[in-house]
Amino acid sequence: MLDVRLVTTSLAMLIALSSVALAEPAGEQARPAGQGSAEARPIRVILPAPWEPARTQADAQSSK
Fold first, then answer.
1. What is the pTM of this model?
2. Domain ranges, ordered by start, for the chain
């Protein structure tokens, strides 16, 4: 009985691990030609600190 449970558990783990391995994107694939370095960079937004008062858009433009 123990052997049947061991084989069943091992088979389930093998199926689960192989499905995860197949679902992950391959990191070694070449990047598509249309995707440049500007498109690959994340967009960064600088937020004010919680203790700073919120600035309006007119205040931000006048400080430039």
1. 0.37
2. 4-59
